[in-house]
Sequence to fold (90 residues):
Amino acid sequence: MEIQARHRFNGSINARYYGALRIPVDEKKISAIAAVIYAAHRELVADSELLKSPSLERLAKQAPLTGSIIAKSIKKLSERETAVDALAIE
Fold:
């Protein structure tokens, strides 16, 4: 299979099946941001489709303290009337 420079599966978990480019990722470097994204969605958008992503959940679990701190911070912030008003959260 020929590797194409522009291929819809480049960087995908399924890249190997389609002859696409595999992109090596150091998951330790992105686990903290994954934990923030996961925690924010869990607190603010509980029915988010993103929360169904096994890969996001797996990455977020690599930085549990970060996710926990962010989740608690979001929860506390959302309980403050002045913060809610400033962000126009209903």
Summary: The CA atoms of residues 35 and 65 lie 9 Å apart.
